[in-house]
């Protein structure tokens, strides 16, 4: 891989000090939500990137080089394309119809849990874990409340949505941000065998993910049984007050789906908002829904068929698919793509650009490469158990300190373009994703589920310690199981 973070000369000592200081000072604001100073992850990353330039840790002209790097743009294009496609699926309410069929009244909770786990995992593999939790959590909570289910199921239900979405997102190269990063950046490896492609995920990761998914499902069942035992055998259903005006409150759960009450005194801004909302209503065209399914199947087929002779770009294929949907929507439904474009989470895309610059500044100090070398990970053979355990600990701890996306970028920048890196790429993809289940802050998907539960009519607080009690032990077990299955598969296949 071409290392975009390598400088022509060694950095001065003041650049090393300022670069590391900037990184350390901004990191807490990136990882945690600090109420007193609510910068948010994107704002904090942009501040960090600005400080890297102001402090001359990196040159201002390098900002354009980093942003314009082919692999960085591929990652951003991939995310944008899948966001557009998921927005069309949301608009057509295809997931709503699916849930209506999957969750009838008086369904035993074991069946509820199984169907939530399957749905969450599969949707995450197609539309990313973050988008899945945004779409699925409020819909499942609404259905759960409407059916007046046992309140002791709620905690296990929320854990299932988050953890199984994270696990399922490892099935494809567009399932989560770190998978997309690894896929795009590993494309520059000289050895094609070392690249993370869609068929590589199918060959090496589907079986460990399936086993881990089953074990996590067993843990969820055990968690529910313990909850029943602790709370006693008395039934605990939701009161009528908790169920009051659920339709109105459910609309507030859905991102960017604000309902405006019509009145004679509507101002211009409200009128525009209502017009946008009406344009986002599902179409009555079966043809367009059919095209939606064909497009998502085509993306998977093309990326799976990509090879050295005929290469389908992982960034341009989703973008091309999104543009095809723009055309189809215009010709079939006579609708403009403007409303869809307005609903794209541009905050995420800007976050990626900020992270690229922010981490390039840290990499330019040489500290990450020194740590990597000090742990002997630069020359380690991950076919040996001691070095494998060292990598395991490094990724698991680092993902929950730095967050999995920044850690993934830092590790990828230490890998040379030549050599066989397949085992490292697979371990990195699997462990950074599963590590997201360790704590509530380990994955954005976890935080989304917690936020949706809090803003629902239940106002349920799914806090850090509630999550940690389940996530800590289970993640250690699941990550070790998957790690050794991948190790065995790599040894057996190669």
TrEMBL record:
Domain (Citrate transporter-like): residue spans on this chain: 36-415
GO CC annotations, alphabetized: plasma membrane
Topological type in the membrane: Multi-pass membrane protein
Keywords, ordered alphabetically: Cell membrane, Membrane, Transmembrane, Transmembrane helix, Transport
Segments traversing the membrane: 12-32, 44-64, 203-222, 287-306, 312-332, 344-362, 389-412, 424-450, 470-490
Keyword Transport: yes
One Pfam family matching this protein: CitMHS
Name this protein carries in UniProt: Citrate transporter-like domain-containing protein
Organism (species): Rotaria magnacalcarata
Lineage: Eukaryota, Metazoa, Spiralia, Gnathifera, Rotifera
């Amino acid at each position: 891989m071409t290392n975009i973070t390598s400088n022509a000369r060694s950095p001065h000592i003041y650049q090393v000090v300022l670069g590391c200081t900037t990184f350390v000072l901004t990191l807490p604001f990136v990882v945690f939500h600090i109420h007193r100073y609510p910068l948010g992850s994107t704002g904090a990353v942009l501040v960090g990137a600005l400080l890297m330039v102001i402090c001359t840790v990196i040159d201002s002209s390098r900002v354009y080089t980093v942003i314009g790097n082919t692999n960085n743009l591929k990652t951003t294009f991939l995310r944008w394309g899948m966001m557009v496609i998921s927005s069309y699926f949301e608009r057509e309410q295809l997931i709503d119809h699916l849930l209506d069929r999957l969750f009838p009244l008086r369904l035993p909770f074991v069946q509820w849990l199984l169907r939530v786990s399957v749905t969450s995992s599969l949707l995450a593999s197609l539309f990313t874990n973050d988008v899945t939790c945004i779409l699925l959590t409020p819909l499942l909570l609404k259905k759960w409340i409407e059916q007046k289910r046992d309140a002791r199921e709620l905690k296990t239900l929320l854990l299932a949505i988050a953890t199984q979405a994270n696990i399922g997102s490892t099935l494809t190269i567009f399932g989560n941000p770190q998978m997309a990063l690894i896929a795009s950046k590993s494309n520059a490896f000289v050895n094609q065998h070392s690249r993370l492609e869609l068929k590589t995920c199918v060959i090496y990761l589907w079986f460990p993910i399936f086993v881990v998914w089953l074990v996590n499902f067993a843990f969820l069942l055990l968690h529910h049984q313990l909850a029943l035992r602790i709370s006693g055998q008395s039934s605990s259903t939701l009161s009528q007050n908790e169920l009051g005006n659920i339709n109105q409150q459910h609309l507030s759960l859905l991102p960017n789906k604000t309902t405006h009450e019509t009145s004679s005194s509507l101002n211009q801004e409200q009128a525009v908002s209502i017009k946008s909302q009406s344009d986002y209503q599902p179409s009555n065209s079966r043809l367009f829904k059919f095209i939606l399914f064909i497009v998502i199947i085509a993306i998977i087929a093309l990326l799976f068929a990509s090879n050295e002779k005929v290469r389908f770009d992982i960034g341009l294929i989703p973008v091309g698919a999104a543009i095809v949907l723009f055309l189809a929507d215009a010709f079939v439904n006579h609708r403009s793509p403007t409303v869809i474009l307005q609903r794209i989470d541009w905050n995420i895309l800007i976050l990626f650009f900020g992270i690229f610059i922010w981490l390039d500044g840290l990499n330019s100090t040489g500290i990450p490469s020194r740590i990597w070398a000090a742990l002997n990970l630069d020359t380690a053979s991950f076919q040996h158990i001691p070095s494998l355990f060292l990598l395991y600990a490094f990724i698991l701890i680092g993902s929950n300190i730095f967050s999995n996306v920044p850690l993934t970028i830092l590790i990828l920048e230490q890998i040379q373009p030549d050599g066989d890196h397949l085992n490292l790429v697979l371990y990195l993809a699997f462990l950074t994703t599963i590590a997201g289940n360790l704590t509530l802050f380990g994955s954005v998907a976890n935080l989304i589920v917690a936020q949706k539960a809090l803003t629902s009519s239940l106002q349920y607080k799914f806090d850090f310690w509630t999550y940690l009690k389940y996530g800590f032990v289970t993640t250690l077990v699941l990550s070790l199981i998957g790690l050794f299955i991948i190790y065995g598969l790599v040894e057996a296949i190669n």
